[in-house]
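job 3f2a | input accepted
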Amino acid sequence: MQGCEETVAGVLFLVATPIGNLGDLTVRAKEVLGKVSFIACEDTRRSRVLLDHYGISKDLVSLPAFAEAERAGRILDRIAAGEDCALITDAGSPGISDPGEHLVQQALARGIAVTPIPGPSAVIAALSASGLPTGRFHFLGFLPRKGPDRRALLDEVAPLQATLVFYESPRRLQETLDDLSEALGGERRAVVARELTKLHEEFVRGTLDELRERYRGAEVLGEVVVLVEGRTGAQRWSEAEVKDALEAGLERGERLKSLAGDLARRAGWTSQDVYRLGVSLKR
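job 3f2a | predicted structure (283 res):
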């Protein structure tokens, strides 16, 4: 009796694509895109521009962020049946503030091999040329647009002694710089990196207060990466030191909310924790 051959599953390749300049596609990435059975991509129209540039013709499967969970199963079924697949997004590395995280998790759960093909990264490109400390950094992706979630996240990262890096829409840049200045302190050094690797690439450096004035009323175009230096200076204050400063400020008649924000920046605490401590003192 003849035995049945076991189907060998394919591989899911995560291929980083150029963030602006099409010439930044790596040799290995080009080879992988040319050899796989099919390509899953965030937007077939944008991906076709890159693939046509390199003369690559493949079956394209759309995998936008809003439909990733729904469509991942069909893609993984093809890989499990023996087809190799390359996942690409509109720019940069899949899964980093782009589709891919869910697909990777499900692939690993099904025992499918996942292989990264590294390359262009807006985070690393911006950080390397920012002039801010690069030894420790904290990537935030896109900030919550507004409200309590946004404030809570800024409170969380305010005490970190690491360069903060995140993406932002050009339409919300002014509002974000205002919020950063208020939450982290306007004296912190910061950088707005715009249109990386493209013709109009721009790095604007200054303090948060200087940058918020620089962009006030300005029309901003293109992709934006914002970087802010981490907290510097003295070690985190003890609870007793924060209490003393709170009591002194309240005796001077300062409002607790503004006092908490100021002390949080100086003490390495979150403004929420300082505010709660202040409320307990006022009881």
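job 3f2a | Strands lie at 11-15, 38-41, 59-62, 85-88, 113-117, 137-142, 163-168, 189-194, 202-207, 224-228.
job 3f2a | closed
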